[in-house]
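User: Some background: our group keeps a shared notebook of sequences we're curious about, and every so often someone picks one and asks for a predicted structure to add to the entry. Today it's my turn. The entry only has the sequence so far, pasted here. Could you supply the structure so I can complete it?
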Amino acid sequence: MEDVRVYRGTDAGSDHELVKGSLKVRLAKVLVTVQQRTKRFGTYILSSPDQHHEFFIALQNRFQTLTDQDEHSIDAKWEQISTSYHATCEEKIGFRKNLYVQDGTKRTK
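Assistant: Of course. Here's the predicted structure to add to the notebook entry:
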């Protein structure tokens, strides 16, 4: 509590008073474990036209197999789309690697 004020009003036979206060909220930092971190894909590989075309064809082939299946649930369709996209990314472009330079700074590539 930073500040509290009592505002008195007309007396109507009640012991209730208007109280106004201000609070200061401090938020705690949430620690993230290694398992909770999301792995990022190395999208820098897609800057090459050959790699980009190869990734696009592989992704297109996976989505063609999804259209052949008949799913009625939106959640099931989304799960299939998400898993096919992630599987194609892992297979074709891989994860981003963190490179450390000799001076101790971190570069991503």
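Suggested note for the entry: The chain is about 35% helix and 15% strand. The helical segments are 49-68, 74-92.
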